[in-house]
Amino acid sequence: MTRSAEKEKATQAARQLLTKFSVKSVPVPLERIVKALGIRVEYAPLDGELSGLVYVREGLPIVGINTLHAPNRQRFTLAHELAHVQLHGPELENAVHVDRGSLRRDAISAAGTDPIEIEANTFAAELLMPQDLLLAILDGRSIDLEDDEAVAGLAKRFRVSEAAMRFRLDSLGGAG
Ligand SMILES: [Zn+2]
Fold first, then answer.
1. 128: Cβ–Cβ under 8 A, 6 or more apart, which residues?
2. 107 C-alpha vs ligand 1 centroid, how far in Å?
3. What is the model's pLDDT at position 101?
4. Strand order, beta sheet including 97-100
5. What's the gap in Å between 83 CA and the centre of ligand 1?
6. What's the pLDDT score for residue 16?
7. Mean pLDDT of residues grouped by 10 in the chain (176 residues)?
8. 8 A C-beta contact, residue 157 and residue 137
9. pLDDT in tens, 92-129
10. Could you tell me the distance, in angstroms and rounded to a whole number, from the CA of residue 81 to the centre of ligand 1?
11. Is-contact 55 96, C-beta < 8 A?
12. Distances (CA, A) of 3 to 7, 74, 101
């Protein structure tokens, strides 16, 4: 598949989940969704550069989240690992998938080069900052990405990091 086809597939997968769980407002109830899908989440302090990991043991998906990172970053990581469960299940049967990254990993979001990471970040961005809900809140306004207060307000509403929101606004063209 082409890069944009992969992203489209990931976006559609996130939208299907939002529809399945009747999500019509933010913040998106990520933990409830993950739990309802039968995924076990373990929160623990992990090595600094690790953001999270995911594997499947006897059919049970298990996600680990680094509690040393900021709560909104942990939330993005959880959405990212959920993406791997939804999109890359078979690959998780053979080996533990470990996500590392700089502190700005969620900010650079879909800028990575590994296709499955791009898909996972694309899925996570759509799941936590659904395009239709974000555009409804913006209601035709454009947000100046230099306006820290406006970006912070939106980030808080969606429970994501300001960096993730800034990247999302930029990629949706909802910024002016
Ligand atoms: Zn990953």
1. 27, 28, 30, 75, 76, 79, 158, 159, 160, 164
2. 14
3. 67
4. 40-44, 60-66, 50-57, 97-100
5. 8
6. 98
7. 86 98 98 98 92 94 95 96 95 90 50 81 97 95 92 97 93 67
8. yes
9. 988 999 998 654 544 444 446 788 999 999 999 999 99
10. 6
11. yes
12. 6, 26, 21
Read off the tokens for 61.
């998906």
Distance 156 CA to ligand 1 centre (A): 24
Q: How far is the CA of 142 from the centre of ligand 1 (A)?
A: 31
Q: What is the pLDDT of residue 70?
A: 92
85 CA distance to ligand 1 centroid (A)? 10
Q: How far is the CA of 140 from the centre of ligand 1 (A)?
A: 33
Residue 160's closest CA among 125, 115, 132? Answer: 125
Residue ranges of domains in the chain, CATH in brackets? 3-129 (1.10.10.2910)
Ligand 1 centre distance from Cα of residue 123 (Å): 11
Q: Measured in angstroms, how far is the CA atom of residue 42 from the centroid of ligand 1?
A: 16
CA gap 55, 42 in Å, rounded:
12
Q: pLDDT tens, 90-101?
A: 889 889 999 986
